[in-house]
């Protein structure tokens, strides 16, 4: 059954506050539980204490067979897939099954120059919109991080029983596209939006060719 978005949001815990938060200016971080900068500082220290005294610990993991490192909250457990059906040098997945949080990175064979990021990003949005008609695009942006451009978009998906928020990002690495995403329950967006961007800002990539 298709529901109007306004009716749908009315059913969410703190829905009106969150809806207003998602409609705020792109650079307004006041709706977040922490700022991106505070989350980055937490990563550098290894832990982050929230205003409710909840502590988030971070672990720094080697990814793509030690080709890069990324710091994730330790609630995200890397998946070990049996049978090697997925090449570990090309894909990485970590998840918090209890919290319903999934983070993934994938090295594509698709050639991608840094100057083509925004075009590639738009193609991804259009393809996902066709495949997932329930997707509602919230924001899209091109971030300059560590002297390279990372294209990001944020979207909400109608998933029963809880709607999900997803941040998708793409960058060029060694001339190929690397695509990543973090998805979580919509109600957790005030925490996981800044955490996701802090993870992007602090990941270390080797010299690009």
Give an overview in words.
This protein has 209 residues and is α+β, with helices and mostly antiparallel strands. 25% of the residues lie in helices and 37% in strands. It is built from five helices and ten strands. The protein has a seven-stranded antiparallel β-sheet with strand order 4-5-6-10-9-8-7, with helices on both faces. A three-stranded antiparallel β-sheet has the order 1-2-3. β1 (47-49) and β2 form a beta hairpin. α3 (36-45) crosses α5. The protein is globular, with a radius of gyration of 17 Å. The protein starts with a helix and ends in a 7-residue tail after the last helix.
Class inferred from helices and paired strands:
alpha+beta
Q: Return the average pLDDT rounded to an integer.
A: 84
Helix-strand pattern, N to C?
HHHEEEEEEHEEEEH
Strand line-up in the sheet with most strands: 4-5-6-10-9-8-7
Total number of helical segments?
5
* Distance, first to last CA: 50 Å
For the biggest sheet, the summary is:
7 strands, antiparallel
Number of DSSP-assigned strands: 10
Taken as a percent bin, the fraction of beta residues is 35-45%
Share of helical residues: 25-40%
């Amino acid at each position: 059954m298709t529901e109007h978005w306004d009716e749908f949001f009315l059913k969410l815990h703190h829905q009106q506050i969150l809806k207003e938060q998602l409609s705020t200016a792109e650079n307004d971080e006041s709706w977040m539980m922490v700022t991106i900068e505070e989350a980055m500082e937490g990563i550098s220290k290894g832990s982050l204490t929230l205003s409710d005294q909840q502590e988030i610990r971070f672990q720094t993991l080697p990814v793509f067979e030690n080709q890069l490192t990324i710091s994730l909250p330790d609630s995200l457990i890397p998946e070990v897939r049996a049978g090697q059906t997925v090449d570990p040098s090309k894909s990485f997945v970590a998840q918090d099954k209890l919290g319903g949080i999934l983070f993934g990175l994938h090295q594509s064979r698709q050639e991608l120059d840094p100057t083509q990021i925004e075009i590639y990003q738009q193609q991804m949005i259009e393809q996902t919109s066709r495949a997932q008609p329930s997707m509602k695009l919230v924001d899209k942006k091109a971030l300059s991080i560590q002297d390279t451009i990372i294209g990001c978009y944020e979207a909400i998906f109608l998933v029963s029983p809880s709607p999900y928020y997803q941040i998708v990002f793409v960058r060029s690495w060694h001339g190929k596209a690397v695509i990543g995403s973090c998805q979580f329950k919509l109600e957790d967006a005030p925490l996981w939006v800044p955490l996701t961007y802090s993870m992007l800002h602090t990941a270390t990539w080797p010299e690009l060719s």
